[in-house]
Design brief:
Rossmann fold; 2 domains; 6-stranded parallel sheet; 4-stranded parallel sheet; 13 helices
Length: 341
């Protein structure tokens, strides 16, 4: 999604954009957005399985050769690495042909692909400051997100939120988050606990856990997945969730949040992300190990009982969102391309 946001900004500036990707979400999202997609097979490197790591290394060596063929066919003036595994062979293949490379990092640490591209990249655009990664090569731009087109009133109608009701949106990662799912179901079982009989909950629990979960009442909209998730964020009064890349969508929507970082994220980057927004005054952080229904209920009750604090947190989120990130990153790509064509 950040790459698509930058691609749209590049296209608006008159550039022609082509994608190289694998077989994950980009296989559908990129063509749907009107961009050419070249497929490349890469493999992650398992850290504790030597034989699997050898097989992955062979696959990735082939990916570098295949990336070179794609670069030769497309003849780009610049290459932008989006941070996924595919970006490493494509960026390295471009650098071998003296084509300028820009990279972007969405989390509070450099991923393995960007660590590989660091020596050859002209610029690395980071979502937030990364300790030890300073200097002219690094530029803090924020994380690129698509423009918000949703209308709050229309979004609340879509989710059948009554006028005057308070909507709390709950979500985990793409698969859901078991600790959040169970804590939220218990914490929000009785709206009267919050002095708000009109409390509504929209909970995207993930398809994995959904069969074992049950909504505690008509106020509770429990789903596996919410399509058009930005609509849900725009409709919300408070958001509860993990703190991966989605925190930037929360911020772009200007919403206060309770963040529960995934404790097993690489280099604990979700905690880094969450603390960044907490320090900005936009979020309250609850470590996953400390999450209980009681803790969540107390935290949310305090926030909903203080409208001035909620408003201040929402304003802080919007200020930290850096809505110009996509255009700023696009400008770096265009500057790297320079006068090549």
């Amino acid at each position: 999604m950040p790459a698509l946001a930058v691609a749209d900004a590049l296209r608006a500036s008159g550039a022609t954009v082509a994608f190289v990707g694998g077989d994950r979400a980009e296989a559908q999202l990129v063509p749907d957005a009107g961009y050419e997609l070249h497929r490349l097979r890469v493999a992650s490197l398992p850290r504790h399985a030597p034989l699997a790591a050898i097989r992955a290394a062979v696959t990735d060596a082939g990916a570098l050769l295949a990336a070179g063929r794609i670069i030769g066919k497309v003849t780009p003036d610049a290459v932008l690495g989006g941070g996924g595994y595919v970006s490493a062979p494509v960026g390295l293949a471009a650098a071998m042909r003296r084509i300028p490379v820009v990279a972007m990092e969405a989390d509070g640490h450099l991923g393995i692909a960007n660590r590989m591209l660091k020596p050859v990249a002209r610029r690395i655009c980071t979502a937030l400051p990364i300790p030890g990664q300073e200097g002219a090569k690094f530029l803090v731009t924020g994380r690129a997100v698509p423009p918000i087109e949703a209308n709050r009133e229309a979004a609340r109608v879509r989710f059948e939120v009554p006028k005057g009701a308070t909507l709390v949106v709950v979500f985990g990662g793409s698969l859901g988050a078991r600790t959040i799912n169970h804590a939220a179901l218990a914490a929000f079982a009785d709206p009267a606990r919050y002095g708000a009989p009109s409390l509504r909950i929209l909970h995207a629990a993930g398809e994995r856990d959904l069969p074992d979960l049950h909504a505690p009442g008509p106020h509770y909209d429990l789903r596996g997945y919410v399509s058009g998730f930005m609509d849900a964020l725009v409709a919300a009064d408070l958001v509860i969730g993990r703190s991966g890349g989605s925190i930037w969508e929360i911020a772009a929507a200007g919403k206060p949040s309770v963040l529960i970082p995934y404790p097993h994220a690489t280099q604990d980057h979700q905690t880094v992300n969450a603390r960044y927004f907490e320090q900005a005054g936009a979020a309250v952080v609850i470590p996953d190990a400390e999450l209980t229904a009681e803790r969540l209920e107390t935290t949310v009750a305090e926030l909903l009982g203080d409208p001035a604090r909620l408003a201040a947190m929402g304003a802080a989120a919007a200020a930290a969102a850096r809505p110009e990130a996509a255009s700023d990153i696009a400008a770096e790509v265009l500057a790297a391309a320079g006068g090549r064509r």
